[in-house]
Amino acid sequence: MARYIALLRGINVGGNKKVPMAQLRALMEGLGYTEVATLLQSGNAVFTCKEKNPAKVGKQLEAAIVKEFGFEVAVVLRTRDELEAVIKANPLPGAEDAPSQFLVTFLSEEPDPKRFAQIDPAAYQPDEFRLVGREIYARFPQGIGNSKLATVLGGTRLGVTPTARNWSTVTKLLALADG
């Protein structure tokens, strides 16, 4: 059995793509997933599944969401161990002290290095960011809400599907996965 974290992109934001968490949990249990739990209303689910191939699980969940809710939602998956590695690999100090100023953008796959290199760090200071594998770690000392960098990292510029979570949510998801 594999323990997964599903990060749904762009649901329950501004009244769009409404997905009630109780309905999402029921949908996932209907797919045969067990130990299903959700965190917040922003599309964070932790579950256990017999399928060991994350790509298959993600596609299955995306298809079920379309059938149940009538709209497409990108799902970015990480295993429990991958999420733990994401936390340990954070290259930016201070996340524990100011978790609301830190964001991890989870990518569906590693971005093209040429595309990523087009994001000029100097243009977004004092915000800073680092790419590590399929995650972009970012620190926003003046807050995420007004940051141009947060918009860039969450967009389609890199040619992969991004979905971001603040540091507090990332650590809570690991705790939830550990039950």
Describe the structure.
The protein is of the alpha+beta class. It contains six helices and eight strands, in the order βαββαβαβαββαβα. The strands form two sheets. The protein has a four-stranded antiparallel β-sheet with strand order 2-3-1-4, with helices on both faces. Strands 6-7-5-8 form a four-stranded antiparallel β-sheet. Strand 6 (128-132) and strand 7 form a beta hairpin. The radius of gyration is 16 Å and the shape is globular. The chain starts with a strand and ends with a helix.
Short summary of the structure?
This protein is α+β, with helices and mostly antiparallel strands and 179 residues long. It is 32% helix and 25% strand. The strands form 2 sheets. Strands 2-3-1-4 form a 4-stranded antiparallel β-sheet, sandwiched between helices. The chain has a 4-stranded antiparallel β-sheet with strand order 6-7-5-8.
